[in-house]
Amino acid sequence: MIDDQTIAKNCFCYKTRAASRTITRLYDDALKPTGLKANQFSMLVAINIQAPISISNLAESLCMERTTLTRNLKPLEKEGLVTLSSGVGRTRYANLTHHGKETLDTARPLWQQAQENIQTSLAGQDMTTLSRLLDQINQLNFNP
Known about the structure:
This protein has helices spanning 4-10, 12-31, 38-50, 55-61, 66-78, 98-121, 127-138; strands at 53-54, 82-86, 92-96. By secondary structure, the chain is mainly α.
């Protein structure tokens, strides 16, 4: 029988969730002057790259449930950063507003500073391999 100490020390889920919370706090702190949280910044970037994009495709690209994404887009829409429009059938599309693009422009250098701070803190580590491994993890699909 495996003990809890061994699980805590070796569990990929435990370690990645803890690392994710730490990294998210670092980006949240850096982005604070814009009023954005790290997850909101990521949503704006994803929308800007793919706009106009359906909510379903956006959720897939962000590895999120569609209902969770819709709930997280509401504050961005309320702040005038994103517009949500109806398409054919029940399809809805997300797009950045002019204010959303300006906010993203303001946030990018703050994001870059946070990114550089993390890279500096991990000096000597192979960041390219880490990034590639994270991409591979995001592509995993354990559903039958």
